[in-house]
Design a protein that fits this description.
The chain is mostly helical. The protein has one domain: Sodium/glucose cotransporter. Helices cover 71% and strands 1% of the residues. It has 22 helices and 2 strands. It has a two-stranded antiparallel sheet with strand order 1-2. The longest helix is centred in the first third of the chain and has 51 residues.
Length: 567
Amino acid sequence: MINNLNLFMDLNVQEWTYLIVGITFSIYIAIAIWSRVETTKDFYVAGAGVSPLANGMATAADWMSAASFISMAGIISFAGYDGAVYLMGWTGGYVLLALLLAPYLRKFGKFTVPDFIGDRYYSNVARIVAVICALLVSFTYIAGQMRGVGIVFSRFLEVEINTGVIIGMIIVLFYAVLGGMKGITYTQVAQYCVLIFAFMVPAIFISIQMTGNPIPQLGFGSEAIEGGYLLDKLDGLNEQLGFNQYTDNTKPLIDIFAITFALMVGTAGLPHVIIRFFTVKKVSDARKSAGIALLLIAVLYTTAPAVAVFARTNMIETLSNVEYSNVPSWFKNWETTGLISFDDKNLDGKIQYLADKSTNELIVDRDIMVLANPEIAKLPNWVIALVAAGGLAAALSTAAGLLLVISSSISHDLLKKVIMPSISEKEELIAARLSAFAAVCVAGYFGINPPGFVAATVALAFGLAAASFFPAIILGIFYKRMNKEGAVSGMIAGTLLMLYYMIKYKLGWLDDELPSSDQWWFKISPEGFGTIAMFVNFIVSIIVMKFTAEPPDEIKRIVERIRIPSE
């Protein structure tokens, strides 16, 4: 027995990763086989019979994507106080969704967001516009998830990022196509358990290691074992290297507000999160599952700032002014992925990590910080492998939810409701599965060719959701007078404006080179411009509504009914 235990402890990181990832993937596949579906209701909303606890766990996993697990702590570790906009926006957004929208949408009782838009605004044109918006949001979002999968595979299984993306595509396609929402829901329950355990274990280890406090949320604000408060120490390290103090902000206040607000209202318009509230039996269950999910999400979100501080402090102390020939093994391991690199500009053989780009010799992709953190801290190999499994669980859980949105938008909202109303349930189910297959191929392409690092890519998806869906949903629930002409005009105006800003200022497709931040409108970054586009949507919707006919009385009665979620 002792010999077998020693044999396990002697496994290297790659062997541990194969073991843990293999076990977790086997669980996901087993759940998919057990929960395979044969009806469209099971495929779209898991038969609307999921318990509040299971739905809360699945919602938390669906919500906490690769951006939350891999990239959020990474961006906070580099941006410091400025990076907190992601933390505030995503957390506040979920509260907004849970309190303001979830019960009412469940009361309406449709399968998808385009279904709600189409029926509330009594128009197939509105439905088609909503389908297009859902596809834009979902494909932008899923690009970040697939990049996260590729990063994990490239380091821990030592395959190329592109190969890792393809492996992830195959796994998520299997349980999404076979089990639909039912398979995705129970797989996400397992994935939540994996990702939260994988995020918390190293955080607790490192908190004890650096501060002696086993609670990471308290540890990063405590005194370091070497003496002095940890945040004061990190501020000093940053200043020595020419960076701003970690606890100071540098973004313009208007951009902080815009990004935070765009992430909040974008959350409330995300179709893959909203659809989760259609899977429970009644409205009261939607409220309960929203509250459970919020508590489960808070575990990771309150820990992320601590992980960011631990990772940045360890990285600076480990690499700054160190002889390249003496760099720790973790640096060499990640260097092979191309996500961290050293350019010896002054030819002295030492790594100079500096704020001045002209003299800085260390290039670090911020998406590696959470994944590399256990290695930097010299934690056991099994902990390092566990983090890899957690990153994959986070990315795949959200990717599966997005795939379902894409497939249901095409098969149910476009095919069944518009193009072929007489299609049978069996044919619709086949179309949904074929749509999922096509969607995962497109998602894989975006994962191989993403428009930015994970958190930035996902932030753009939130901006699109804010610009397109949020006003239409809010006005559809709380304003009886809002008609189809206003809603459609607003969605088109908001979406096109957001797309233009993304293409020009994030992707740089309209200019020979990417415009600088000095050229941003109102000093607002592309990640925050969803706020402006959302207000444009509201304004256009209301102006057009004022000059067009009122909605039918039947629609007004529906709005009155869904505003009283009494079940």
